[in-house]
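Protocol step 4 of 5: obtain the predicted structure for the target chain.
Materials: sequence only (see below). No template structures provided, no constraints applied. The aim of this step is simply to have a reference model before the mutagenesis design in step 5. Sequence pasted as it appears in the construct record:
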Amino acid sequence: MTFSGDDHKTTILVTGANGQLGSEIRQLSIQYPKYNFLFTSKDELAIENADALRNFFEKQQIDYCINCAAYTAVDKAEAEKEKAFLINAEAAGFLASVCNDHHTKLIHVSTDYIYDGTSRRALKEEDAVAPLNVYGWSKLKGEELVLKNNPSALIIRTSWVYSIYGSNFVKTMLRLFKEKESLNVVNDQQGSPTYAADLAQIIMNFIEATENNNNYSGIVNYCNDGVTTWYDFALAIKEFENISCKIFPVPTSQYPTPAKRPLYSVLDTSKIRKMLNTNIPSWKESLHKCLKAYHEAGK
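Step 4 output (structure tokens):
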């Protein structure tokens, strides 16, 4: 567990802090010395451990909890349904309940995989949900339990998350570009990539807005601006990196996976733009920032 700051400051707990988003919040926290951050990994604070969670909250006053803890192995979840629901649904619901008991503002992260992919327009928060896989169902159940147990919680649905940290599409492509002369990448799934560093900043913007008496709750969407496919996303990475590896488009039917993915999961972000009066960078702009950070970090 990592502590930073003084005890009397507003305290922010970040669960699942070693993942993509948690790691980006840790990096960003340097710019927020006015807050006291507590970063916990799944080994230090497993949110599915009810007793540990309750004890943790009883030992210190936590003003905000950013729940980055999740079971995110989409294909593996098909065979590990109980584990996916334990972490993404039951544990999230219990965390929401504990936050409610301790008057802690909860910010919970969800996913575009709660949609079935049949829409052909950007998806709004109130649109019908119908997950195609176990992971999506577990995250949807988590949303329901979070709001049931803590009506003041804020849920941020996001999509296609990547970072210089953890495992993600961008880092996989960078590795495969070095190993392969050619790659096949799916070109019939449309969505919006999300740079985890941008999402981390949006979360901190919400916390600052709450500090200024804007108490947002319910569900909001966040992703970078613009629409792409995994194929065009890969091409953009290749272009930025000036790589010679050939990339070929293939339909989802030629790349079967245990978990079915939505063919269209573009999120409408007009609600969050209005709430925070903010502009959202394009996915290409943010991809460029990420790749620059990747090389600066010596990855």
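Step 4 remarks: The mean pLDDT is 92. The radius of gyration is 19 Å.
Proceed to step 5.
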